[in-house]
Amino acid sequence: DEQYDPRAIQDKWQARWAELNPFAAAETASDDRERRYALDMFPYPSGDLHMGHAEAFAIGDVVARYWFQRGYNVLHPIGWDSFGLPAENAAIKRDSHPAEWTYANIDTQAASFQRYAPSFDWSRRLHTSDPEYYKWTQWLFLRFYERGLAYRKGGLVNWCPNDQTVLANEQVVAGNCERCGATVERRLLTQWYFKITEYAERLLDDMAQLEGEWPERVLLMQRNWIGRSEGADVQFVIEGRDEPVTVFTTRPDTLFGATFFVVAADAALADEICAPEQRAAFEAYREQVSRESEIDRLSTEREKTGVFLGRYAINPVNGERMPVWASDYVLAEYGHGAIMAVPAHDQRDLDFARRFELAVRVVVETGDADPAETGVATAGEGTLVNSGPLDGLAKSEAIRRITEILAEKDLGGAAVNYRLRDWLLSRQRFWGAPIPIIHCESCGEVPVPDEQLPVRLPEGVRGADLAPKGVSPLASVADWVNVDCPKCGGAARRDTDTMDTFVDSSWYYFRYCSPGYEGGPFDVEQVRKWMPIDQYTGGVEHAILHLLYSRFFTKVLYDMGMIDFTEPFSRLLNQGQVILNGKAMSKTTGNLVDLGEQIAEYGVDVVRLAMIFSGPPEDDIDWADVSPSGMAKFLSRVHRLAADVASPAGTDPASGDTALRKITHRTIDEVTKLVESKRFNVAIARVMELVSAARKAIDSGPGAADPAVREAAETVTVLLSLFAPYTAEETWEVLGRTAPLAKDNWPVADPALLVQDSVTCVVQVAGKVRDRLEVSPEIAADELERLALASDKVRAALGGAGVRKVIVRAPKIVNIVPS
Ligand code: ANZ
Ligand code: ZN
Fold this sequence. Notes:
This protein is α+β, with helices and mostly antiparallel strands and 819 residues long.
């Protein structure tokens, strides 16, 4: 018996695969095999690969390898998301250039990937920080700019005082910087934005294509993030101001119940209309609000705060004067930054009214107790009261009616509002794609001409040059910043901000289709062949940002006529996390398992198999509950099985054992279906059962020389190649097969061997089970009825009574009704 030596097997096949490059996608125009595109979310090069990578890439690889085995032309690329802040922080610490840390880590990860052996097409490798890549990120920015989808505006932005850079709303988690945890501040700055709000409706509607193919919770998160609300706009005159002010409301039916008016404390309108005698109080309050996070502001737990602005708004339908307040619970960037307050039917307004002793007027009779007394606003169905022309109407009728009235009188009308904000994409950092715009005193914003792309990052910037100063480090590189205006030739300055790294990752999967293409970001023909992506695998932490931005980019590319589909990822799989002892792994708490150590101890295949076998791919894996040694034992049994078959003990060459063949073919059939439906852990369990059956056939059945045993061993090997590729390749060779195993070898179940010999038929008398019969699955109904009535047990149960009716559901049930 040859010994199973995982390390030796690994080294041997890693070298051979490197030579053979078996997973390169075929590009030839003549290749008319069905195509599949399997994509794993590309890694960020922060040190070596960890357990989380090991899980995600093992799962993604099962799908890709299955497609390779099925004979498809598969695209399964790898690259690196290699711009970003950590590289810059490392460079400051080490007095080096961010590229040094970045590319050293990429090399480390690439070597680890070679060993871990996902079925990548290495020839398509890309790094978003390469000028050959970010040239096209800049090119895309300019196309967005031309379409009015990239623009600059001043406004309040999230500012991380530690990283000294702005953050998108999505990067603020519970008021803290997603990266470093510092409390985020609000600052007034001019920044670049992508107009993703223009695509809000389509981002929502096109989710119909993803229904059933993406995890339901991801679709829900996207839907909530886009946050569509239907309602009405209503215009209010503010005394002493010419222009009326518009508010958005989801409850226009409550217009007669509005008793005051609230403007966001940080909105320009509050500053503009504040009466002189209230100015000091207002400014003090605004200063306090500027330090609050959006989460705090929307919290229903906190006591409401605000200041009276000394002004009055006029209710357009009844002419009432309503005091105007400024408060933090109204957000400057949502709706129109001002609201009509209806305390009887909105809890936030009621809390505010009770705090500042403002009037509460019920206008929808719901049958609940008076909100002014209970402190609980009533939001349910009911009948309108105190509402002039709306009196007596039900809520939904009243909404329709008042919306009509407002439109007729030119005081507003139906409106839709989205929670989604435009995407703030500029960063005051170095290690990103420079924004390809030049600012000229006389010409204003001037796009860098396409033929001058890429706008390369300057070299020689290192260490302390990168320390956060609140402006981009690029601003201090004089010979980089100062350029001639491409339009007038006069002295001008480059934009010194770089792009959010989410811009880089919004289109990388297009680039993989033609990674060396020089005529554009991608070769339109190649993208037409490969995309959309059949399977995207990655962490649920990207459920909102990355996926939403990628969907947005795809729609813009569609509008540019570059592609013919509107959703990039047909199917999405979110793998769970690898945890330890019930908790997230973390370097700081020491609750950590090192991937390199696990591989050194058990070998790659054991780690991969354990990852997949531990549960459904969506579930978290607690590594403390995983048994790598159990997996190692299983793989050595597989190896021994192959070795036994390869050197049979000299029994007679009988025709294959039918019982074992049936198990083999049922396993093929089931594993195929299980892999298709991503129940990989169950698939492995089936392979284990087949190994046991084959072992039994060798030890106490027809013996190792029986052709059915060889068939079982070869089947085990191919099925296992999705999960433990090194061992499978080795046992394939042990079995005397020479062609590379990894492609085109998926077995097909013989339907004749899937037919079951017999099924159990339940016979009931008066609803009670009285007998069970083993019958052929193809038995005819009259034959089954005859057998049932002939049963001794049935006759005993009938006790001489006659039979009124026999209901036969062949081959499973016979129901006898006595007379
Ligand atoms: C009057 C009213 C009466 C409201 C009522 C609700 C209930 P969603 O569903 O999130 O879209 N609102 C509007 N703009 C706001 C802003 N900038 N900041 C905070 N709140 C704002 O919520 C829309 C409702 O939120 C609007 O409808 C408005 O309050 C408030 F019985 O108007 B409502
Ligand atoms: Zn100019």
